[in-house]
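The passage that follows is intended for readers who have already worked through the single-chain material. We present the inputs for a multi-component assembly, then the predicted structure in tokenized form, and finally a short commentary. You are encouraged to pause after the input and sketch how you expect the pieces to fit together before reading on.
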Amino acid sequence: MIEFKNVSASYDDETPVVDGLSFQISDGDFVAFVGTNGAGKSTTMRLVNGLLKPTCGQVLIDGTPTTSLRTSQLAQRVGFLFQNPDRQICCNTVRDELLFGFTAQGVDSAQAIPRVNEMIERFGFDGDAEPFLLNRGTRQLLALASIVVMRPPTIVLDEPTTGLDYRECTKVMDLISELHMAGTTVIMVCHDMEVVGDYAKRVIAMTASHIVADGPTFDVLRNSEVLQRAHLLPPQITDISMKLTEDVPELHQSSIACADTLQQMEDAIASRVEKEVR
Amino acid sequence: MIYLKDFSFKYAEHDNFALRDISLIIPDGCFVGITGAAGSGKSTLTYAMNGIIPHCYPGDFYGSVVVGSLDTVEASLTDISRLVGSVCQDIDSQMVSSVVEDEILYGLENFGVAKDEIPSRVSEALEAMGISDLRSRSIDSLSGGQKQKVALAAIIALKPRILLLDEPTAELDPASSFNVFSLLKNYATEHGMTVVVVEQKIALLADFADKLVIVDDGRIRFDGTPQEVLSHSDELLDIGVNVPRSTSLINRLRKRGLYRGAAVCDVADAVRVCKEVLA
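Having made your guess, compare it with the prediction:
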């Protein structure tokens, strides 16, 4: 479990970038942090993996403060995907990049190599390719694969789909979803509300260094006041549902009022039309 | 106007053409969205429009690219830069100053903008991007989204006739992305600025663009209004281009025989159609 107890942090010891954050993330949770640019979301992610230490309060991982854990101990518990994969990739070949974490932790190559090969096969990587010559989406996938290959119990993702096309985005998010289904705790910052709606189970909305909402995904994404304060727009189907029920009050009692996916909305409209016909 | 005729380009040392047989006309004051799968040639297309190709990237260049009245092969990069303001995909590689205000000043001073005009240009650009409060901040202390707003403000301050933006909202929050697109649309309609945006956020493009261009494997696959292009939603998904959920919903209702009208591009139109279907 990850626990923030009244955490504040600053880069210059003066201006707090996050201020008095308190929340818990249970094992196996899938949480999306959303909100305004500069709200402190990426800073919160750096606090989770111990890249940044709190100026006051405590960040606890399984009950131990991050200030008491060595970097290697933190890396075993929390895998971190940077916003920009080029800040993360540091080896000359794809294979070496995937091996990097094992080497840094002194893991035997007999144990590491089969897991690296599995990743190469799964993503269709060329193990001998030079990472910086790959396109942006493939570099992002490689950065994610080099985290996932270590099988940390928690992964922290700072905008994992930024700059990816539709297919790449689906590939990345399907892998993350699969890890979540297998029990990995997933914490991500994401500006794409369609992705948040499709995958996250819980949303924490931030603005101006503070948390303004924390709850089940669509409870937050249907809260007009939160949407406004955190500069959010709901996913399109949720938006259509909210606008339809606002304009046509008798739809409040129908399944259209709680449709958040394409299939739910299509079925809700079709069944209402069929009912009218009958 | 931007005019590409039978344009093909192969980067030096590459075996395949990055773009092939591109013919495209973008009128003055048009807001154009370009999208496509990764590696389809979108960024190469922008490099052709801002003169980076052929001036910085050598290779085999066929056909012609004319921007305003400048043929990009014959004109100097300096002259093209006065006409076309560009924001590249990697914001960090574009930043040249350490403080926000200096970043905005850099272009204005280098373009020889009159001294008494500079303060108002800086203030207006910062205000337009909603970052007046960041004026004295160190660029290193900004988030990715804030840096992106600074890069946009620096280009907007130059008031170019053509704006060429490669994923300008990739790191912006949803409301800021919407605001940037509203602002760009306003520049196009009110000031006659030509705006060309490469973007993966198809819902924003569908909402704001006058014209959508879909690039697939180095060729233009679709070129038309968002409504025309999005009516090919199945083909778009096949080539790795997403479709707004509002468009998909109405297409599904069409397939079920519940609606016979045209494709829609945004939430407002989808709500209107749903009401018609439910009435």
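Commentary: Chain B has one domain: 2-243. Chain B has a mean pLDDT of 93. How closely did your sketch match?
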